[in-house]
Design a protein that fits this description.
Length: 583
């Protein structure tokens, strides 16, 4: 049977083994996904996987077709984060595979479960480099950039391959998995009963990993000695979906907590123990830091440097399911290896005896700093500037999220991201999705689509104009599926700001400057969505509320002062400054 006629695979057919029902690679792959509760595919159709997408849809799977594979992959990765099941991304071979691979690597870096499935050229041609259509050794290229990579050559192995991919994606530290499917695989035929027997339903793919009792006791000894303890929560704590355990641990401990951006909302940012508004103080002054699903990477200055106070001034307790994460940058005094729920349960049990909350002078100092900074920020947010700056525009969105705490906020950009992190409060877990560990641009539209598809909740995507440009064509995808997504593009005519000048005096604009007065709202209108041009805080607030009420695809072009913004947001120190002077 050819790959072009998959619908014939389940008819009663004469084979070399006699007369009986047959199945093929197309149906076996679909059956394997459905048997494991994976019912949505994000991808881009094309040879050799077009028929697979059609057949998956015909068999009850939801197939969300994008305009570019990278954005489909970003959607699959976010789906994995939100559901704890691997998101599926389907691409064509070679260039399509490479486009999806960017998202797969990003998912692995962020510890989100995802499976990239790509059609590929035949092994006998690839291995001899004989020039097949889109020839590429995709498995070899994928291996260094994901958690696991497998190639399936025989239809009878599809069930076990999908099972291995699922378990690899979600067990231990989650991540990306690549499945290489040569075109001939789809058309392979086998007995239907034998095919059904080859499907594997994965049992307990992400089993609990209990911490060692002696490790728990060591952590408690360090914590009991703390005078100025701090808890830092990362997106791993949000992914774990043990929200009540996290809340119980923090509130019973009485320790101030600092949420990383995607951990915001595990407890409300307005919670009395939240130290988000006193970040500099608590990082510098704390003496014991409990890391819950967070890593001491660049986002936390690697746990050292001026922001952390004097060298050796603090001890770290780190909860992580990956043992090799410990001591990645600095010494971890008390490593707790295990899943977050089990580790926090063990710490809570130990707190039942001889536990006292932190000294009042420490918690009082943190609260005083929080109150002072919140008051200072409130004054800034109260200014109704004309044209809008980041504070006045984000103040409007801050109020909307406060009124709609179940809405999902997608956020990317430079200044748009950095200011929104500190200005917009979150109130519920897994309601904020942003650029994650790599800090990359271009996740916005893929994340918005996945958030809407997987949760059914309204989505507010707050985008810098530069960030939006990476995935803006996916507004057609949003309109095609009529998703409840409201996009706000902060338009200040350029990257960081729209005022840079070409110092050579030539005709070209500066590298960071865009077309002045661009109307991104017209893009959404072109595909049947709602487009709004907003130049004031009131116009922005009105437009977003109407969009969220209607549930219709909407794009609001929010005009920001082109002088607003700073180089690289708050990480300008990562951009080396030239030491060459003009002669």
């Amino acid at each position: 049977m050819s790959a072009e006629t998959p619908e014939k695979a389940t008819t009663e057919t004469q084979s070399s083994e006699g007369t009986g029902d047959l199945t093929d690679g197309f149906h076996l792959l679909i059956d394997a996904f459905k048997a494991n509760g994976l019912n949505t595919i994000y991808g881009v159709p094309g040879i050799p996987i077009t028929d697979f997408g059609r057949l998956a849809q015909a068999n009850g799977m939801r197939v969300i077709s994008f305009r570019h594979e990278q954005h489909a992959g970003n959607a699959a990765a976010v789906a994995g984060y939100l559901t704890q099941k691997p998101g599926l991304c389907l691409t064509v071979s070679a260039p399509g595979f490479l486009n999806g691979l960017t998202a797969l690597a990003n998912a692995t870096t962020n510890c989100w479960p995802m499976i990239l499935i790509s059609g590929s050229s035949e092994r006998e041609i690839v291995d001899l480099q004989q020039g097949d259509y889109e020839e590429m050794d995709q498995l070899a290229i994928a291996k260094p950039l994901c958690k696991a990579a497998y190639r399936v050559l025989h239809a009878e192995d599809i069930g076990i391959a999908v099972a291995r991919a699922i378990r690899a994606a979600v067990s231990g530290r989650p991540g990306g998995v690549y499945l290489d499917l040569p075109a001939k695989l789809f058309g392979q035929v086998m007995n239907a009963d034998a095919g059904a027997a080859s499907i594997v339903t994965v049992i307990d793919p992400a089993p609990r990993q209990l911490p060692a009792p002696e490790a728990v006791e060591s952590a408690m000894q360090v914590l009991r000695q703390a005078k100025k303890p701090l808890i830092i929560m990362g997106k791993g704590a949000a992914y774990a979906q043990v929200d009540e355990t996290v809340r119980h641990f923090i509130e019973k401990s009485g320790i101030p907590f600092l949420p990383m951006s995607m951990a915001k909302g595990l407890l409300p940012d307005t919670h009395p123990q939240c130290a988000g508004a006193a970040r500099s103080l608590v990082l510098k002054e704390s003496d014991v830091v409990v890391m819950v699903g967070a890593r001491l990477n660049w986002l936390l200055s690697h746990g050292k440097g001026k922001s952390w106070g004097a060298p050796g001034s603090k001890k770290f307790i780190q909860i992580d399911i990956e043992p090799t994460e410990m001591d990645s940058n600095i010494e971890i005094a008390a490593p707790l290896v295990g899943d977050i729920g089990s580790c926090l349960d063990a710490l809570l049990q130990s707190m039942n005896s001889k536990w006292s909350t932190p000294p009042a002078d420490w918690t009082g100092a943190v609260k005083a700093k929080v109150d002072a900074n919140v008051t200072k920020m409130s004054q800034r947010l109260g200014a109704d500037t004309n044209p809008m700056d980041y504070h006045s525009a984000l103040a409007a969105l801050r109020e909307i999220i406060a009124q709609r705490p179940d809405a999902i906020l997608v956020n990317e950009g430079a200044n748009t991201l950095d200011f929104a992190r500190s200005i917009i409060n979150m109130y519920e877990p897994r309601k904020r999705i942003d650029v994650g560990t790599w800090g990359i641009m271009g996740i916005g539209m893929g994340a918005a689509v996945a958030a809407a598809i997987e949760t059914g909740k309204p989505v507010l995507a707050v985008e810098g104009d530069s960030a939006f440009g990476f995935s803006g064509m996916e507004v057609e995808t949003i309109c095609r599926y009529n998703l409840p997504v409201c996009i706000v593009v902060f338009n200040n005519n350029g990257i960081y700001r729209g005022t840079d000048i070409n110092e050579s005096g030539g005709d070209d604009v500066a590298p960071t400057v865009f077309v002045k007065g661009s109307r991104y709202d017209k893009m959404m209108e072109a595909f049947g969505g709602m487009g709004v041009h907003a130049t004031s805080r009131d116009e922005l607030s009105k437009a977003v509320n109407e969009a969220m009420d209607s549930g219709k695809p909407t794009l609001i072009n929010a005009v920001i002062d082109e002088n607003a913004g700073t180089e690289s947001g708050r990480i300008g120190n990562l951009n080396p400054q030239s030491v060459v002077t003009k002669k």
